[in-house]
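quick one before i forget lol
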Amino acid sequence: MTTRAPRIGKKLHRRWLAECASDATQASYWRKRLLDSAPGEVFELSRADLSGLSRGSALAVQRYGLRYSATVVDAKEAEPWLSENGCVVFRFWATDFPMVSFFSGNNPASR
């Protein structure tokens, strides 16, 4: 197996981040894990745990070896509109490329 150039890995992570994060925020498995987590607790979406991901996202994670991390963050870290109406803010990022990130506002009442 050939080693991929870091810039290609970063592009692949950037390409799939929003879709994987969207899947996770809609999956009850990930929402529960994140909403019930302690502050700063980090979870990884990777080949080791594809629960709740769509078929396309799961295949991309497997094929390209993508690894994303997710945690609940202080609302001040994201755009203000993401925390409107009591939403909890999740941050997703490429584990190997922390600057490649995505924020999502999630209503804890809609578990």
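fyi The longest helix spans residues 6-26.
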